[in-house]
Amino acid sequence: MTSQLTYTQQISQVEQQAGAAIRVSDIVKRYGDLTVLDRVSLDINAGEFITLLGASGSGKSTLLNIISGFNKPDAGLLEVDGEDFTRRPPHKRGLGMVFQHYALFPHMSVWDNVAFGLRRQRRPKAEVQQRVGDVLRMIQMDHLADRKPDQLSGGQQQRVALARGIVFEPRVLLMDEPLGALDKLLREEMQLEIRRIHQELGITFIFVTHDQHEALTMSDRIALLKHGKIVQLGTPKELYDSPNSRYVAEFIGESNLFEGRVDADGFVTDGGARFGRPSGDGSLLMVRPEHVRVAASTEGLTNAAPVRVFNCVYLGSDMVVYGRTESGQVVVARTPISHGVSAPLEGDRAVMTWATEDSRLVPDDAEQRQA
Amino acid sequence: MAKILTRAFLGLLAVLIGVYLLMPVLVIVPMSWSESPYLAFPPEGFTMQWYEKFFNDAAWMSSLGHSVSIGLLSALLSVVLGTMGALALVRGKFPFRGVVMGVLLAPMIVPFVIVGLAVYITFLGLGLTQTTLGFVLVHTALGVPYVLINVVASLSSVDRRLEMAAMNLGATPLGTFFRITLPLIFPGMLAGALFAFITSWDEVVVAIFLSGPDITTLPVKMWSGIRVQIDPTIAAISTISLIVILAAFAGQGVFKLFASASERRRRKRIVTMQEELA
């Protein structure tokens, strides 16, 4: 997404769009003394794949439930294509949803599960047959249409839940940790499948997960939530390359963070080491492990952190080297394995180095709060 | 060796307990076809005359009719009220739910004599003694706890997300209940209704207070009959009463069979539908 339209521009384009634009304004949700959502605002573009990412208790599921209508906000406004949805009951919203653990109706066949929404909308019988048949073929489940959910594998149930959510052509599909119960291989397969369906349908997808890898793989944009607030909103690349706080840097991917300050000549760590000054602002220098190289000596290097290697992990494609500087700072390097280069051994002395343009300054969390 | 002895002993114990529990049935049922004019065990000969006597006696027939109609009505009312109560207790959000549950279950624990006396005094003033309505009201109160326990149990195992999914797909709250919740808790409701019916069918103590010349239930009539004359008619009635209860349980089994049969038909229908499409 290079050029994002504004919300109002989007609304004027609604006629041509399959997906709906959603505007969340100053939503507040409290449970007793606990504030789960604290004045959250978010503009979701029509046809966008947006992920609400966060640890448990960050409020991501609550926000999704406010959009689906199962939760009523204490304050704030929810608009879908300019219409006020804040108080509308769930069954009158017409938004598709894939639930955690799928929530397939156990007493109905796959066919009846998928047809449920169309039948509630009183679509003609022929249309119901046509659409259910089509969508089951699309997810390659047409041969299992007469099975009950408990006769299906986890991956098959997942696909049926997806089919049930999209068969009535909603403008928005909400997904609440839909891949949580699948094993790793199947999860990666489904990520691509969901991505493909999103591109095919062109509707708005709102995806909730606590898995940053999933968020990076699938999303157009990610909203990272923490304690009921969006800490950063942006494309996966923006969140990964230029996190706006320590929390984001640590949540998305792995990172080496050096505490220190910028002076006239560069960046000085609290431990006294001196590195080149990268772009960005803040008192943390971040460099991702895949940008760190292991060198033999500090000679001729702008950025050099001498370490003693204390762990070395072989991952097949990569090698991860863990070193500790004299001041106790852990530095991690992740390098592709190339034959002929011997791996450092545990206890070896080595130098961790990186190019200044691969590092970045990140505000520490306290600074961000002041800003 | 010791193992075999233990097994033999446990087997014997199990058989003895089984015989002990079935004793009333094993004694009463054979007595009902005895030719002896008195209740005698073991039975002498074979005759159906006591059954004939029962079915030809207008008084017995009237009490049988009352028992059936009171039993069915109170089971029906119990299952409707009990299910509504269970829904409120499991899905609702209000204070003192534990207390409400306790009060609703109280009829199971409060001695029937106390219930009977209280009901008698109250109903006398209201003109509800010796009426079907009076019986149904009391027996419903006694039946509701069984429905409540069964439905609360099955409702607790129904994932709330299923109801949310149905609403998300456009089902109204009422539609969601009838299409999703009800089918899933139906076995619990049926079991509750069965217990409510049996409670009413078998209930003597409160029924004695409410009975009179105009209206008696079968167990009350048996109780008063036994004091006047003891002949095998009473054994025949007991057997019939037992058959009614067994039939109720069998009915539940038949329902399960029927449900799976209609399920098979529906699957066939889906297969043909797909073939048409292909």
UniProtKB/TrEMBL annotation, chain A:
InterPro entries with a match to the protein in the record: AAA+_ATPase, ABC_SmlMolc_Importer, ABC_transporter-like_ATP-bd, ABC_transporter-like_CS, Mo/tungstate-bd_C_term_dom, P-loop_NTPase, PotA-like, Transp-assoc_OB_typ2
Pfam family, one: TOBE_2
The enzyme's E.C. designation: 7.6.2.11
Catalysed reaction equations from the record: ATP + H2O + polyamine-[polyamine-binding protein]Side 1 = ADP + phosphate + polyamineSide 2 + [polyamine-binding protein]Side 1
GO molecular function: ATP binding
Keywords: ATP-binding, Cell membrane, Membrane, Nucleotide-binding, Translocase, Transport
Protein family (similarity comment): Belongs to the ABC transporter superfamily. Spermidine/putrescine importer (TC 3.A.1.11.1) family.
Name of protein: Spermidine/putrescine import ATP-binding protein PotA
Organism from which the protein derives: Leucobacter albus
From TrEMBL, chain B:
Boundaries of every ABC transmembrane type-1 domain copy: 64-255
Annotated protein name in UniProt: ABC transporter permease
Protein's membrane topology: Multi-pass membrane protein
Location (main, coarse): membrane
UniProt record similarity statement: Belongs to the binding-protein-dependent transport system permease family.
Subcellular location: Cell inner membrane; Cell membrane
Entry keywords, A to Z: Cell inner membrane, Cell membrane, Membrane, Transmembrane, Transmembrane helix, Transport
Transmembrane portions of the chain: 12-33, 70-90, 102-126, 132-155, 176-198, 234-259
